[in-house]
């Protein structure tokens, strides 16, 4: 009997693992659920094994009591941080302050989220390093999440009292426009002893290029002010050396061609820095599209069956079948990519992996477009039938 109980327990654990691995094609985060279910099955199976042992009932009770004491001691002796991180992970899943691929900042670490686990969250920093945050730290400390709809980027600059404010505002706003910022603004932050501190910024819609945009914005501010013959007096000039009258601190003007690189980089810095975060975001996006397709398939099948004309119905079924077959191909490719990414980074070249992911993402988007076109076609057919009846 004990052998049968052990066999059934192992079979259930293996079945749960296989089932959730298949489900992972659509739902990208089932690791915690899998481990929890397997732990519960293993615990229940262990209890049944004890009950099925060919020994006296008092010995069975003693064994169960011993197991209870061991479990209680393990919980008591384990670090309270473990439990706190687990509870924090559950809290993060409930409130969802960020998603995979989002930019977040906590403490002195800034980067993009690559993975969210029950005990920790993995972030790829601007140095391309992977930083592991205990979930307790993210919950108990201020956390800044950059919205996908856009963020304000700004910089501060100290300029002299001898330069008219209107001239400064005009050139700072011009620098913001050159960078492509929307709704630019200029604020006066401080009237210092030696200079005025200005803050200039604007809304950046394309946060994919956040790091580059911040740098380009500062470059534009520097170039625009120098082109307008405005000195930047930050840090403050101290009267520790004699300067000739008329001396200005502006770099000499050079031809524009010398400033431009001959061969611009093929990739943006963000694509190299946040490669793992971008991959995780794309995988999530593909999974979401496939999940929507699965939900819509049944609705489309019911609508197709309600079309009275057989020739139109056959045509619609053919199109729906084509979408289904292509969806299964994308699912298979997605599963393969997840395995390759999950095993080792050396398993496939990052450049090739990135191209495959982008291609797979385009396929999923194309399938979603075809699904929407089929819905519109059905609406027209069913709408015309209803009008005919009226």
Question: Top keywords for this entry?
Answer:
390 residues; alpha+beta; SH3 type barrels; Alpha-Beta Plaits; 4 domains; 12 helices; 8 strands
Written account of the structure:
By secondary structure, the chain is α+β, with helices and mostly antiparallel strands. The chain folds into 4 domains: 2-78, no CATH class; 95-146, SH3 type barrels (Roll), CATH 2.30.30; 151-254, 2-Layer Sandwich (Alpha-Beta Plaits), CATH 3.30.70.100; 274-389. 60% of the residues lie in helices and 14% in strands. The chain is built from 12 helices and 8 strands. Strands 4-3-2-1-5 form a 5-stranded antiparallel beta sheet. Strands 6-8-7 form a 3-stranded antiparallel beta sheet, covered by helices on one side. Helix 11 (310-343) packs antiparallel against helix 12 (350-389). It is flat and about 105 Å long. The N and C termini lie far apart (70 Å).
In brief:
This protein has 390 residues and is of the alpha+beta class. Helix content is 60%, strand content 14%.
How are the secondary structure elements laid out?
Blueprint: H1 2-23, H2 31-52, H3 57-77, H4 80-95, E1 103-106, E2 109-116, E3 120-125, E4 130-134, H5 135-140, E5 144-146, E6 151-159, H6 165-178, E7 182-191, E8 196-204, H7 210-227, H8 256-259, H9 269-273, H10 275-305, H11 310-343, H12 350-389
Antiparallel strand pairs: 1-2, 1-5, 2-3, 3-4, 6-8, 7-8
Order of helices and strands: HHHHEEEEHEEHEEHHHHHH
pLDDT < 50 runs, ≥5 residues: 24-29
Task: Compute the number of structural domains.
Answer: 4
Could you say which structural class the secondary elements and strand pairing correspond to?
A: alpha+beta
Helix content: 55-70%
Q: Would you report the number of β strands?
A: 8
Hey, roughly how much beta strand do the residues contain? Answer: 5-15%
| Number of helices in the DSSP assignment | 12
Biggest β-sheet description: 5 strands, antiparallel
Strand order of the largest sheet: 4-3-2-1-5
**Integer average pLDDT:** 78
